[in-house]
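ok trying this again, last paste got cut off
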Amino acid sequence: MMLITAIILTILLSYIIGKIGKNRKFGFWGYFFCSILLTPLVGLLLVLASDPRPKAKMS
């Protein structure tokens, strides 16, 4: 039962980190999968250390 709770909590935290990082360099899916594969703490540090996504130039 504890393992299921830990997995659900990891997925939920990774989703939140992905939403925070959606306008950053790697986007939602990049930070979501980084948080799943590493840990949500590392994913959060990556989001905080990354640059915002560059604005698209309109020509």
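PB: full thing came through this time. Helices lie at 2-20, 27-37, 40-49.
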